[in-house]
Structure formats: structure tokens, C-alpha cells
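Hi team,

Below is the intake form for Putative hydrolase of the HAD superfamily from Halogeometricum rufum. Please confirm the fields before the structure is written into the shared record.

FORM ID: S-0412
PROTEIN: Putative hydrolase of the HAD superfamily
ORGANISM: Halogeometricum rufum
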Amino acid sequence: MTRFDAVVFDLDGTLCRHDQDADEVYFGAFERAGEDPFGAPADLWAALDGAPDPQDRLGYLRDGFGAVADRHGRRDADVDALARGFDAVVDNGAVSFLDGAEDGLAAARDRAAVGLMTNGPEHRQSTKLASLGLEDAFEAVVYAGDMPRRKPHADPFDRTVAELSVSASSTLYVGNSLEYDVAGAQGAGLPVAWCPEDGDADAGTYDPDYVLESLSELAAVLDGARG
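The structure came back. Fields below:
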């Protein structure tokens, strides 16, 4: 018998990866905006500060493009148009399962109630779920991006637990972010399994209850074979 009544998964970087070519998105933004390109995708990723605000995604992108424009002496660039262009080019359906994700999800569904809680808004994340064939895979889905407070705040964790009708202490949260998933879940009273997308298992000052190299290891955690 599993030690948990429910398992709740994060989506991006935990169950799935985004497969769209970075150059296609980055330089597509310039084409849409009618701007001469400058910089490279890596410049924008480095300039983006923290996780995006689902309520102001364009502002987040605008600030990132603004920092890249400053670095390349292009303060005349229309960063608002670049942000809109970037958002228009992104294909939210271009996703695929991370290695081990399907095994981990199947193991959870065989043993417990299963939920999904993601910081993204429904209009983006539901497209990803449909592309992955997961529209009916969860007994509760919470889109924290549509809530006043998102991870790492406790509110979305509390809502997910309530929708599953289980206790926080008997619900395992599975995610890839130390700041948002590990700290957020533990702050809401949930044990957490951390599965870093990049394979770097250095948790630093964080203390996840379980560390997984792949979600294929989740069955052993649920069955109590891993302490």
C-alpha cells in the first residue's frame, strides 16, 4: 500500500518539456515586430528575471527584451512589439513528455488520487495537457496562474488538496523547482519529491523529502521502498 493518499504534479519541467526551436521563437518575435534582430535566445533567457508573472506575461517579456536591447545598443527598439511578437510565435502545444514522466504518472494513478497544479494560466496550460493527451488524467487540476497568489504561496497547494479531499500531510507534491515547488509545498505542509529537469541534484539550502533522477523512480517512493 502506498504511503500517500494523493500525488500532485507540476507540469512544465516536471512532466513535460517545450520542444519549439528557440531560434524560431526568438527571431520570429523580431519578424512579427518588424525589427532588425539583435542578440540571441540565450541573451533573453539570461535577462529574464525569475519566473514570469502569469498576469503580466507581456511585461515580463518586455523587460527582458529591454535589457537585451540596452546591452546591444538598441534602445530605439520597440520592446512592446517584440514582447507581443514573442508571445504570438510561441506554440504551447509543442510539448513532449520528459523521460520517465509517463512511468511516474502511471505509477501514481495506480496507487493514489492524482492532481496537477501549475503556475501557468488555463489558456496556456490546457493546450499543453491536450497535446500530451492528459485532459482527463487528473482528478483535480489547479491553474495557479489564474489565482491571486501563485506558487510558492500556500493558496494553490491548499486549493488542490481541498479539491482532492485529502490532507496536506498525506499528499506528495512532485516538481522540478526548488524555490516554487520544494519551498512552496513544504510551506503548505506537503511532503515533496524534487526531480530537477537539468539533472543537477544539488539542492543547496533546500531540503526536499525525496530527490529523484527521473520520475520513473516515483513508484519506489510511493511504495515505501525509498526513505
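SUMMARY LINE: The radius of gyration is 19 Å.

Thanks, M.
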